[in-house]
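Q: How do we represent a protein-ligand complex in a form that can be generated token by token?
A: Start from the inputs.
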Amino acid sequence: MTLAVNAEKTVSRAATARWSTNDVAALFELPFMDLIYRAAQVHREHFDPNAVQRSTLLSIKTGGCSEDCGYCSQSKRHQAGVENEAMMAVEEVVAKARTAKESGASRFCMGAAWRGPKDRDLEPVLEMVREVKALGLETCVTLGMLREGQAEKLKNAGLDYYNHNIDTAAEFYGQVVGTHSQAERFDTLGKVRDAGINVCSGGIVGMGESRRARAALIAQLANMNPPPESVPINNLVAIPGTPLGDTPGIDPFEFVRTIAAARITMPTSHVRLSAGRRELGDGIQALCFFAGANSIFYGDKLLTTGNPDVDGDDVLFARLGLKSV
Ligand code: SAM
Ligand code: DTB
Ligand code: SF4
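Then emit the structure tokens for the protein with DTB bound:
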């Protein structure tokens, strides 16, 4: 009896755990040209390789967060010079969304520096989601950890995507964040999935993690069942005043490898070239698009740090013959 149960568990695990860390680490070990060529082939099987989706970000509530995420300028425990700001008014948010649409974004992502929203915090956010959706934009919010019932309220307001990153490999997570666990992040992702909202989840590269940890992060994302529809891969923006403020930049080819590994292991997901694009430059970004990145954050600002300006991105798209979708 015990044996049969164990056998069943093994079978169901095998059916869902498609990528071991070793499998993904083997991708990272490929010669660079072989890796990005393979990723480009997978990309072309599932997507138009010249089409890139564009999301605009807006920080609707900035700073003063209780959590201690080592990369983040918005923790109240860090001195990154970010002014705490109260929640923006709904009309102000809608005006920003309108501008984003006019600039050519297809999705509008609203972020709040919370461990998670209280129920009374959620009410104005629901209104923002309804109004942004009414402009004809896809909607996304990133509000931290959700309590019972909150995902359903967001779904009913018309939310398309919820962003909640697992950030780094389980084995490295404790070195970056102490105030909550990665398991709690997975719990929120489960609530989002159960409510029928598309999942946006990815991580950060360049926090001093090993290559094996990067492979483990990608395997964890790919083994979610199903994998996230949207996978943001952030290049750490090392912000002075945060614990990771002095972290040296990662070899940009290693960043491209991470994009390629995400593309190969999550062939039908949108892989977003996210924070830290300014630091990568045009050439590396072009390699990322070749290796399967097919989404970006578009707009002059991320949450508290800069992003390539819209005009610069439009020029880059024109030079590469990329179209936005
Ligand atoms: N408080 C919410 C949360 O933690 O989920 C939402 C906002 S939080 C700023 C969203 C994500 O932005 C983080 O999970 C992290 O992946 C990314 N991020 C934050 N600061 C970053 C930085 N300096 N460089 C790269 N990515 C960063
Ligand atoms: C994601 O993966 N990256 C975005 C978004 N999801 C919310 C945030 C990037 C933040 C970069 C640092 C800053 O601007 O504070
Ligand atoms: Fe707070 Fe999110 Fe920043 Fe962590 S990443 S400190 S939860 S705003």
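The first strand starts at residue 51 and ends at 61. Residues 119-134 form the longest helix (16 residues).
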